[in-house]
Design goal:
Structural class of chain B: mainly alpha
Helix content of chain A: over 70%
Radius of gyration of chain A: 26 Å
Number of strands of chain B: 4
Organism (chain B): Paratissierella segnis
Order of helices and strands of chain B: HHEEHHHHHHHHHHHHHHHEEH
Largest sheet of chain A: none
Oligomer: heterotrimer
Number of strands of chain A: 0
Keywords (chain A): Membrane, Transmembrane, Transmembrane helix
Largest sheet of chain B: 2 strands, antiparallel
Radius of gyration of chain B: 25 Å
Number of helices of chain A: 11
Order of helices and strands of chain A: HHHHHHHHHHH
Keywords (chain B): Membrane, Transmembrane, Transmembrane helix
Shape of chain B: elongated
Largest interface: B-C, 30 and 31 residues
Family (chain C): Belongs to the ABC transporter superfamily.
Shape of chain A: elongated
Distance between the termini of chain B: 32 Å
Number of helices of chain B: 18
Protein name (chain B): ABC transporter permease
Chain lengths: ~240, ~400, ~290
């Protein structure tokens, strides 16, 4: 009965046009997304293939470990494959550039720099977890020991990160992911070639070379990373002037 | 024809105008040069002290070997070697670090290598167990060892017979000669070949995929020659580029190695490098064979890259897949027990680059035809390239611009 | 000279992008109008042979779209085309010339002539990556005309051009249409209105209207009204008629709308233009209520 009455009233009397509707709506303070929500959202934007490939690689590691055990060739395989893990992460970070999204992202509330930090943070953590899991799986099954094994596995990875960061710092084109792909291929192939050609590369003879390379590459990578962050900050500053 | 050449010229221009490509080419030439002379860098240490530089060491070895060049590998040379090695005292450390080795035996180190392989010695000390009668029979002993190796494989009787027959055609006695340039060339060419393969992938990957990513596909495919001549020109560019690069980098490797290590030894039997090889070939012939297979292996790899480039929509994925194809055979060791799998694995381009795979102990019975591994590799590379090219052609021609 | 499109269809999984379109195009400029996603670009791609139709044929003077001879007669400017960033405009045109079968000398002559025509001759030696959007578009138009095509397909040729350039190209296209088939699609209705001898209107993959400007405008001639009404009446009219233009005045609202009979007492009939027709057909919410 009440509904019918309402309908009749609606038909009989015309409702006045709402006055100052926009200003009324504007005074509400809508709930904004928190930083955590943003991280969660960014996590969702990382393509599934990153996780699938990382997981696949982990399964292959377990498989190899089960059937072949830890040998020099196993270390060679792992150290040649790890640069690809970093490539997957780099291709994810450079997505904004590749898809010409950076101008849009730079002008949003959470700008390009934040997005870069969050994406890099998430992917870096994932890479670290992956690397540590492999190390813990391998340690004890080889004579190399935790740190030496870590060095053998991470030095090519660091070399790839370092050159890729240089590419990211020096180039600004859609080809950046492709060039990082070339870098990874080069690092991976060189790693295989060098470790095959120099039989005793994993022996004490080259121990100093490994440590030095690791430290130098780590420092250089950090320098390049700082440069990249500064470059992003410049973007942020420039965009704040123009937006 | 003019328009066809013009299209090829533009394809080369597109490749060579990219800064990243030029940088990659220079890096590749530098790595080739560096790896050619890499073994000459650094020093030889004895008891923690520098004994000689590697370059001096190479020169010294070369002079020693040259002093024996032209002599037959016969009883007298073998006895001299045994005698020279008998001076080395039994020590716990490396025997090559001893003064006696340096003074007496070093001159004969390459002859010792022949002896060690023929007599299947595990240790240099065993050289003294070789009695004079046995020295007389060096070529018999060597042939027995070759035949034992053949017998130990899982080849069929026909295949084994063919390998044995071939091994009996090896000319004896061997004339001793310095072959350092060629032996260095053989080990260098593997690295060079992988580099050629890598650079070809980098340069050729965007040949078709680049048109998709640059959004040039619709312009190209709607043009007069876009669906025929241009595709042929692209395919020609890919193949000719891999040939040119193979020739250039192989020549760089050859000339560099020969300048530093010495040009002679081209007519010496391959057995001076691989004592138990069954092939009656000279160092020069094997070097040529190695180069030809590297070139055709790289043509096959280039064709594969072009096929992937036409099929996939991004050069990035092409590079990743081609890298996996390149490195995985280097990481996986295929057993010789199941021969057909082993032979199949040797048809992967990277495996065609290894001299060990090219002039193996194996003969292959293929539907009644007895072929050698290098025959199969060459024929496979040519046929599969010819078969795959039309697929790449069709793939680009039928591409729908979306 | 006849371009025959016969029952041309393109189907993607569960969407028909182009639905059995049959057309015969002769010399002249054809303007293809339609909203986003109506199938204009898909139709043009199929006419250019860069997209395989699900069914149907495209033939020019009996030559199938898949043949080299057909492509020899074709000039195409895609909606979203690329370029080689490391090429100069001159290199690019020479390259396109070689693809179109021009000799090197002819390509050079034609390239410099066209670069002059599109106003890029002074920057012809600069790399394309340094060009603005409008300059790239002009270069695109130049490449489409390189081979003096008999069929010229232009997918939004004037997008990215400033008004002066647009008028310049409108005139150019108009001249080109005298002795060739020009099919152009655009969102800018006035472009079509000025230069197209025949207008094709596409909706949901089909040609819903086809004819000269006068012919197709005839459908709404005498149905376009203008009126100035109070807010309440305006709200009522907006809800019930396809509105072409609204202008808020001090206490009244000016409306231009399409209706079969005068929508209110003050409404006056005005001559119809193409934009009225376009909005009439693509203003779905309102047409239903009319």
């Amino acid at each position: 009965m009440r509904h019918k009455l309402k309908r009749e009233v609606k038909l009989t009397f015309e409702a006045p046009t709402p006055a100052r509707k926009e200003s009324f709506l504007c005074q509400f303070d809508y709930p904004r997304a928190s930083q955590f929500d943003f991280i969660k959202a960014q996590l969702g934007y990382i393509r599934k293939r990153v996780w699938i490939l990382s997981l696949l690689l982990f399964i292959v590691t377990l498989f190899e470990l089960h059937f072949y055990g830890v040998s020099t060739s196993f270390v060679r395989i792992m150290s040649s494959v790890l640069p690809f893990i970093s490539l997957i992460s780099i291709s994810e970070i450079t997505r904004s550039v590749t898809h010409n999204m950076e101008e849009l992202e730079m002008s949003c509330k959470h700008n390009f720099l934040e997005i870069f930090f969050i994406r890099a943070g998430i992917l870096g953590t994932a890479n670290l977890i992956f690397l540590l899991s492999i190390l813990f799986l391998l340690v004890g099954k080889t004579d190399f020991g935790f740190f030496r094994l870590g060095l053998f596995l991470t030095t090519p990875y660091l070399l790839n990160c370092y050159i890729s960061l240089i590419v990211l710092n020096c180039l600004k084109s859609r080809d950046v992911t492709y060039i990082c792909g070339i870098v990874t291929a080069f690092v991976s192939i060189s790693n295989v070639l060098i470790t095959i050609q120099i039989n005793d590369i994993y022996t004490e003879k080259y121990w100093t070379l490994w440590i030095t390379s690791f430290i130098v590459l780590a420092i250089l990578s950090v320098i390049e990373l700082v440069k990249l962050i500064k470059k992003m900050e410049e973007f942020k500053w420039n965009s704040s002037l123009t937006v | 024809m003019n328009s066809y050449c013009e299209l090829i010229r533009f394809e080369y221009r597109k490749i060579l105008r990219k800064r990243s490509n030029i940088i990659t080419l220079f890096i590749a030439i530098f790595i080739t040069l560096f790896s050619c002379v890499g073994p000459l860098m650094g020093n030889q240490y004895i008891k923690g002290e520098i004994y000689e530089t590697n370059y001096e060491g190479m020169k010294k070895d070369r002079e020693y070997i040259r002093s024996l060049s032209g002599r037959e590998v016969d009883k007298s040379l073998l006895l001299e070697t045994i005698e020279a090695y008998s001076h080395i005292p039994h020590t716990d450390g490396k025997y090559t670090d001893t003064k006696e080795y340096q003074q007496y035996a070093r001159t004969y180190s390459e002859v010792y290598y022949l002896i060690r392989k023929a007599y299947n010695l595990n240790d240099w000390k065993e050289i003294s167990t070789i009695v004079e009668d046995n020295v007389n029979n060096f070529y018999h002993v060597r042939q027995d060892m070759v035949e034992k190796n053949i017998e130990d494989t899982t080849m069929s009787a026909t295949e084994k017979a063919n390998s044995v027959n071939l091994s009996r055609k090896v000319k004896t006695p061997f004339i001793y000669s310095y072959t350092g340039g060629y032996t260095r060339f053989f080990s260098q060419m593997y690295t060079t070949a992988i580099l050629i393969c890598f650079i070809c992938s980098v340069y050729i990957a965007p040949l078709f995929a680049g048109e998709y990513t640059d959004k040039m596909d619709s312009l190209i495919l709607s043009s007069k020659y876009g669906k025929n001549k241009l595709i042929s020109a692209k395919l020609f560019t890919g193949v000719s580029f891999s040939i040119l690069l193979s020739i250039i980098l192989s020549a760089v490797s050859f000339v560099t190695v020969m300048i530093f290590f010495g040009w002679e030894g081209g007519n010496s039997p391959i057995q001076l490098y691989l004592p138990l090889s069954i092939h009656p070939l000279t160092m020069g012939q094997v070097a040529l064979m190695n180069f030809v297979l590297i070139m055709f292996g790289n043509i096959l790899s280039a064709v594969l890259t072009m096929l992937l480039s036409a099929k996939l929509k991004s050069s990035f994925m092409v590079i990743v897949i081609m890298t996996v194809i390149t490195i995985s055979p280097m990481l996986v060791n295929v057993s010789e027990d199941v021969l057909w799998i082993y032979h199949l694995s040797n048809l992967i381009p990277v495996n065609m680059f290894s001299i060990g795979n090219i002039i193996d102990v194996f003969s292959i019975d293929l539907f009644g035809f007895i072929l050698m591994p290098y025959d199969i590799m060459l024929v496979f590379a040519i046929i599969s390239s010819i078969v795959l090219l039309p697929f790449a052609y069709r793939s680009f021609k039928n591409h729908d611009c979306a | 000279m006849e371009l025959i499109i016969d029952r041309l269809t393109k189907q993607y999984k569960n969407k028909i992008a182009v639905d059995r379109i049959s057309l015969t195009l002769k010399e002249g400029v054809y303007g293809l109008l339609g909203e986003n996603g109506s199938g204009k670009t898909t139709l043009m791609r199929m006419i250019c042979g860069v997209l395989k139709p699900t069914s149907g044929d495209v033939k020019f003077d009996g030559i199938d779209v898949s043949e080299e001879e057909y492509r020899d007669s074709l000039g195409y400017l895609p909606q979203d085309f690329g370029y080689y960033p490391e090429f100069t405009a001159c290199d690019f045109l020479l390259y396109m010339g070689s693809l179109k079968g021009l000799t090197k000398i002819r390509a050079k002559e034609k390239a410099s002539e066209l670069l002059e025509l599109v106003g890029l001759s002074d920057v012809s030696k600069k790399k394309i990556r340094t060009y603005s959007g409008g300059m790239k578009q002009r270069l695109g138009i130049a490449q489409a005309m390189l081979n003096n095509p008999k069929i010229l397909i232009l997918d939004e040729p004037t997008s990215g051009l400033d008004p002066k350039e647009r008028i310049h190209f409108r005139n150019l296209i108009s001249r080109l249409g005298k002795d060739r088939i020009v099919l152009l699609s655009t969102h800018i209705v006035s472009d079509v209105e000025y230069i197209a001898s025949t207008i094709l209107m596409m909706k949901d993959g089909q040609i819903i209207l086809q004819g000269s400007l006068e012919e197709i405008i005839g459908a709404i001639e005498g149905k376009v009204f203008e009126c100035s009404v109070d807010k309440k009446t305006a709200a009522n009219l907006i809800a019930n008629y396809p509105i072409i233009n609204i202008r808020e005045e001090s206490d009244r609202t000016f409306l231009r709308l399409v209706a079969d009979k005068p929508p209110c007492e003050t409404a006056v009939v005005v001559p119809a233009i193409l934009e009225d027709l376009y909005l009439y057909y693509f203003n779905e919410g309102a047409t239903g209520n009319e």
